[in-house]
Design goal:
Blueprint: H1 35-46, H2 51-54, H3 80-83, H4 87-122, H5 126-153, H6 161-172, H7 176-201, H8 205-232, H9 238-258, H10 262-267, H11 272-281, H12 283-291, H13 296-302, H14 308-316, H15 327-360
Helix pairs in contact: 1-5, 1-8, 4-5, 4-6, 4-7, 5-8, 6-7, 6-9, 7-8, 7-9, 8-15, 9-14
Bound molecules: fe (ii) ion (FE2) (2 copies).
One fe (ii) ion is lined by residues 109, 112, 139, 142, 188, 218.
């Protein structure tokens, strides 16, 4: 089904037109010396999966807490007016907040699908085009997964203004590396931190498995950026590198300061001033917002965009420390967690099959 009937607020338009102005490049050399990118392409081919087989969509979500998050993780948990509400009202707010987050994941994934298709066209070398083509398929699968989750929650939210602004900027930019930087490093970097929060803390088995499997694909997407951009940036002039750093600073501030759940609180008729004050002053939420950058900062450092401007902006945002995160270890952990989910699923499937055989004999 199309999701328009479940949007909490009506859409202005069902489609969004973004004019494009970039050059499509053919590679007549059919270059094949970047073995590292070809290895990644090989992994992309062999690690494809079908969300219908790997995820148990028959599982129903709790309507009052679809992701099964611990209550104290809810952004307004502890606010005086929220604590006075009935459990049913609180459950409705938790459902809407889950709908809002998963809707932003869904719109972000559609952005990733479009951006990776654009990279296929405007990245110069064939090895990178090959790899990016596998990412197109991955991102289509991610759209499918979050669409199903949003349908199960039963409520959808339109894309937020700041995410739309950043996507618009990234899609219009004609340079392939800027597409990658904005989409993969910033937007998907933030999403990855939010996915890992659900994967590691939520209790619902469907929500945790879906996020773990998506993160397994994302580990390859991040690896591409590291390989391609680490080689590309030293070839640019200082002026061009500064431009990239300025873009990253602006994008990170935009996401930090304006990417909040305001639309939900407004829709539910919550006291906006109290919500704002609570969210601004809560130590737990400050930590959560900082944590959202834990995936972006180490990659920015790794690809060599680590000049004075960016380090002082990140220091101002309190996120500079993430520069020392071990990206390889983090990605290895993402792969391992997805494999553990697979093992549990196979275990359950085997137990069901054994039960079936026992009743038949
Ligand atoms: Fe994705
Ligand atoms: Fe991705």
């Amino acid at each position: 089904m199309a999701i328009d009937p479940i949007y909490a607020t009506a859409l202005e338009k069902s489609h969004w037109d973004v004019p494009q102005d970039y050059t499509t490049l053919f590679d007549w050399n059919y270059s094949d010396d970047r073995q590292d990118l070809l290895n990644l392409y090989g992994k992309g081919k062999s690690m494809q999966w079908d969300s219908d087989d790997r995820i148990d969509w028959s599982h129903e979500l709790d309507p009052e807490n679809p992701m099964g998050i611990p209550k104290e993780f809810f952004p307004l948990w502890g606010a005086e007016f929220f604590q006075k509400m009935s459990a049913k009202e609180q459950g409705e707010a938790i459902r809407h907040q889950a709908a809002w987050s998963n809707s932003q994941f869904l719109h972000g994934e559609q952005g990733a699908l479009i951006c990776s298709a654009k990279i296929v066209q405007n990245v110069p070398d064939l090895e990178a085009k090959f790899y990016a083509s596998t990412q197109v398929m991955d991102e289509a699968r991610h759209v499918e997964v979050y669409k199903k989750l949003v349908e199960k929650i039963g409520v959808a939210y339109p894309i937020t203004g700041p995410l739309k602004t950043l996507l618009d900027q990234v899609i219009r930019d004609s340079r392939w590396d800027m597409t990658y930087l904005g989409m993969q490093v910033v937007i998907e970097g933030l999403a990855l931190a939010a996915f890992s929060n659900i994967r590691d803390n939520a209790k619902d088995p469907l929500a945790t498995a879906a996020n773990a499997y998506v993160m397994q694909d994302e580990a390859r997407h991040v690896a591409f950026g590291r390989l391609a951009l680490r080689d590309y940036y030293p070839q640019l002039t200082q002026y061009e590198r500064n431009e990239r750093e300025e873009f990253l600073i602006e994008a990170c501030y935009l996401m930090r300061d304006r990417f909040k759940n305001t639309e939900v609180w407004e829709l539910l008729g919550f006291p906006m001033k109290e919500c704002d004050e609570f969210v601004e002053n809560s130590e737990g939420l400050k930590m959560f917002r900082t944590q959202l950058f834990s995936r972006i900062v180490p990659i920015v450092k790794d690809i060599g965009l680590w000049g004075d401007k960016i380090t002082s902006a990140y220091s101002d945002m309190g996120i500079l420390g993430f520069g020392s995160v071990d990206v390889d270890a983090m990605q290895a952990n993402d792969m391992r967690v997805a494999e553990e989910h697979d093992e549990r699923r196979q275990h359950v499937d085997a137990a069901i099959a054994a039960g079936r055989t026992a009743t038949e004999t």
